[in-house]
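User: Just a sanity check before I run the rest of the batch. Below are the structure tokens for the first item. I only need the designed sequence back.
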């Protein structure tokens, strides 16, 4: 991803990966023109369990992933 003046340029592979992961979660991504649209597409593509772990880490400084209780693959498979 390249960001310049608030605009985002993705490679075809990056864009397709975001589209595919969003589609798995029930979201449609047709274009990404701004960093805000990129941020939304990125969060929508993440597993809800991974997002919960990330939020816990941001709020408390620790999470199951940080403590090594689970692996990244375990969080992203759900």
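Assistant: Here's the designed sequence for the first item:
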């Amino acid at each position: 991803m390249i960001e310049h003046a608030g605009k985002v340029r993705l490679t075809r592979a990056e864009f397709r990966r975001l589209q595919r992961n969003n589609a798995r979660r029930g979201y449609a991504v047709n274009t990404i023109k701004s960093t805000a649209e990129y941020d939304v597409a990125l969060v929508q593509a993440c597993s809800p369990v991974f997002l919960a772990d990330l939020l816990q880490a941001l709020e408390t400084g620790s999470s199951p992933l940080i403590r090594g209780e689970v692996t990244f693959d375990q969080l992203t498979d759900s």
